[in-house]
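User: Here's a chain of 452 residues. Predict its fold as tokens.
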Amino acid sequence: MRRLFALFALSAWLLGAAAAAQPAGPPKDGPTVAYTHGRWWNGSAFVEGARYVRGGMFVARPARRPDRSVDLAGAYVTPPYADAHNHMAGRASDVSLRATASGVFYLMNPTILASAAPALRRALQGPGKIDAVLSMGAITAPGGHPEALYVDVLRPRVYPQMAPGDFLGDAFHYVTSPADIAPVLDRLVAQHAQFVKIMLLYSEEYARRKDDPAFRGNRGMDPALVAPLVAAAHARGLRVAAHIETAADFRAIVRAGVDEAAHMPGYYGAKGPLDAYRITPADARAAARARIVVVPTASLAFINNREDPARLAVVEAMQRANLLALKRAGVPLLIGTDQQPGDAPDEAAYLITLGVLTPREALNSLSDATPRYIFPGRRIGRLSPGYEASFLVLAGDPTRDFAASQEILRRVKQGFEIPDPPPELRPRLNNPPPPIARARPRPTATASPRAG
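Assistant: Prediction complete.
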């Protein structure tokens, strides 16, 4: 049985299966608005000045007087944030509200059902809503993750109307031989998947685990099939993200040309000795050559080990060594949470307190690299003419005190000024070091495995 985690059960219940919600796009035209006396983030520093917005885009300073001016009074302005691993727990409208309250405008949602796509698309249309890309069901093997999650855990509570066999082809897909690859990928294309999620768990033990019922839910697809699946997905224009558990899994996906490690080895704290989760500098250099990105979801280790400070200390040391090796090799470290829709700033803060990223690096990953990875074809993540006019106005400088990333005074998405959230959703970031003293409590009431 997978590790217990309430958010995915809630997500599966309220979102159901969903295809990728398409962003509404900025308005075609409209009045010119000047935002003056701001301090605008350019990737390395905050620069004083003004920006001009028309038709949902940043534009050059107009020759004529703007139709309206907004005085930012010296506040700090950054691009909005993104979460590259979020299962969007809650009703779609509530997810959007909670995410934007924390400044998160872009989500990448792996491993969901595909059958409620039209409802999700409708719910996320309209100005000021989040933009999301979704993978639909994961590719696994019989008895592999997430089959046990759906059939054994969620079906009795959430989907009593569904037979066990109904989840196959909707929540997950089997690939057990080369002949399965094309039909599965074609089905995902027909379901409007925007990327592919594969499950690779303890690949070094694949032969031992694949037919043993004791490992139901704790195994994945045959590692020998990953490379041909990646090639076939790329031929269809689909990126491939991989759920991994161990360092051996990481090496396997790097060799196979996977685009994204959807976790880091030992992301949740791991079980038993940590040697199975350690990567080497050579592994990191190979990852850089393969141009893979890593979405660590590292703060899950704190959540799963905070009651055991001694264990947490050794797990964090392992995480720090792994992530610093990747960083030194030039592997992009993106922000993803596998948690609540507004939690991306917390993950960034954890990477700061872990000693992996500086506040400046964390801000750039959160507001530039991660959004542009999620939506590579869009002009986002910058505050310059020709880019979408989406930004956050902050009371303080997050490169000096990262808690300022949640002191949000104004939220603008494609020129639309999002109303302030209700008081109960106003964000906060508790960020004194060390990480064990920082993270806010998480829901743990229901017993459901994490999606991964």
